[in-house]
Amino acid sequence: MSRPLIRLLQRLAILGLGVVSVWLIVFVVFDFADQRLPWAVALSVTYGLAAYVILPRVVRVGLKVLQRKRVPYYTITGDGLSGDPVNLALIGTSKQLRSAFAGAGWSEADRLGIASSWRMVCAFVFNTPYPTAPFSTLYLFGRRQDIGFQKSIDNSPRKRHHVRFWALSLDRAQDTVGTAGFWTNTELPPRDARVLWIGAGTRDTGLSLTRLTFQITHATDSDTNLERDFIVTELTKHRVIQDVTFHQAGQQLPGGHINHYIRDGRVTLANLA
Question: Which letter does DSSP use for residue 169 in this model?
Fold first, then answer.
């Protein structure tokens, strides 16, 4: 089968998924809820099911239809879409990483759960401090972030500097030369090992909705390079990192070909003190 025909069939399949999802949301879910609940409640229930149940699954099916097997330049959301770009790499143990950010005045994020999510919603609505607020889940190496840190802006939960990290063994990073295996490796290094912490740092600026699924989330500043530089400056100022180097995409980083995870700009590499 020719490539143009395959592409046409894929687009028709995606269009069909879109039509079916709209029909399901409007003429099945909302119609069912509207007949049994007050209009406002029916609309809220429909939104919840559409944004958090139906559309995420439709997106996942659509991505499988498109057979996206590219090596990603970004972290991945739970829906399979591109998330925050990777822009930072630190070398050290888990204890060193926690000590570094604690020494710089950052807080470790709570694990995402029902209780922490509800507390975050209340803090966001009433603009009350929550310095250890949880992060939404992003994926790299087939798993959610291993740890995350944040620093509030004006003591508000709506705006914050934050960074997620995924651990990768130094041997694994050195042995893999920018292949898909680098990204699909789900192996978690030993807890006390000296590893490569691959980070994605961004700055939250307010409230937003996710693409395609319209879930409620934080809006983020588009300049992730600026946020990366802020994090490095914070850690450098408190003398918790050393041997800081900057590398353009396409260059080889010390210790192996671990530089294939951003589209452009610079990757900052440093050793934890």
Answer: E
How far is the C-alpha of 118 from the C-alpha of 99, rounded, in Å?
28
CA triple 149-204-241, angle to 5 deg = 35
Cross-strand pairs, 247: 267
Residues 227 and 221: their CA atoms lie apart, in Å, by 8
Going by C-alpha positions, the residue among 152, 15, 135 that lies closest to residue 84 is 135
- 43 and 94 assigned to the same domain: no
Please report, in tens digits, the pLDDT of each residue of the chain (273 residues total): 677 777 777 778 778 878 888 888 888 888 888 888 898 888 888 888 877 777 767 766 665 555 444 334 578 777 666 778 888 889 999 999 999 999 999 999 999 888 988 898 888 888 899 999 998 888 887 788 999 999 999 888 888 999 999 998 877 666 554 555 555 566 778 888 888 888 899 998 876 666 655 566 667 777 888 898 999 999 999 999 888 776 544 344 444 333 333 344 466 777 787
Q: What CA–CA distance (Å, rounded) separates 246 from 205?
A: 26
Domain boundary among 66, 100, 115: 66
Q: Based on the structure, what is the number of domains in the chain?
A: 2
CA distance 134 to 132: 6
Last residue of a domain, one of 66, 84, 104: 66
Identify whether residues 49 and 81 lie together within a single domain: no
Dihedral, 202, 144, 78, 178 alpha carbons, nearest 10: 80
Same-domain pairing of 25 and 102 = no
Same domain, 197 and 268: yes
- Taken as a whole, the chain contains a residue count of 273
